[in-house]
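Exercise 3.2. Students should predict the tertiary structure of the chain below and write it as structure tokens, then compare their answer with the key that follows.

Predict this chain's 3D structure.
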Amino acid sequence: MSISFRSAKSQASHAVRSMTAHGTARHDNQDSGKIHSLGTERAYEQALAGLTEWIQENKLGDLKGLDEATARHYLEERAEDVGQKTLDLDRQAINAFLGINLDRIDSEKEAAIDSRAYTQDQIRRVAESQTAGHALATAVAAAAGLRAHELLTLLPVSERAADTHRDYRHDRFSGREGTIYTVIGKGGLCREVILPQNLADKLETTRLDSAHTVYDRGIRYQQHYAIGGGKRWSDSFSKAADRALGWSTGAHGVRHTYAQERVIELQRQHYRFEDAKEVVSQEMGHFRADIIDTYLR
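Answer key:
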């Protein structure tokens, strides 16, 4: 399938046109993989346009080069921001485009009412059940509220500055001290995070002589520290939690812990609730205060 248009909308429109079969009876062509409804055509075009924008933001080429691993990574990121209905539609559009059947991914936004957060003691017990590299990654992720793949992108701010096209609050990390690092998050955004000094010192003992190229879910990263990250760390965390606690809500639960504890911490510094959420959203790479509500369940 050849797609040479530059804009996300044009790429998506071209892709969907190649999948349509207007004028044919749906009941006689259910297994053709073709789109028979104008409504479905519009929905798929919108879904694929959003996917293409993400591909472009992450400098991964264009829609024609999409593979299964990259598509799964996109859906896992989308799960943080959209409801299950939208996430399922995105997955269906990708399945139709690639001719595959990706497994269903649960929306983080519509996660179970029960909190996914761990206590600090539970995180410590999980880390004690991991190898050293994964245990350090768990401590770092918990301290800074990092996503799994962001662990692969850590670098001191003195070596890589954060992006400047966002309007950052100047009171990020209020009340916290330590060393500033940057990570590459969603949409390729490079943002600052802070690690307590003792943890930063421990991290620096694992600094690699030269960056290692690693691939996680089909995405290429340059890793500078010999710690866990990405899917391997996430899988390690879940297995260690099952061993240490007898249950797991997944590695993403440490971000829930960070959000919950940090909002309380800021409120104790006399921040208004909404302001506290806005600060935490920026620290976690969202820049939308309302999304923090998902983490506060």
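Discussion points: Residues 23-32 have pLDDT under 50 and may be disordered. The longest helix spans residues 38-57.
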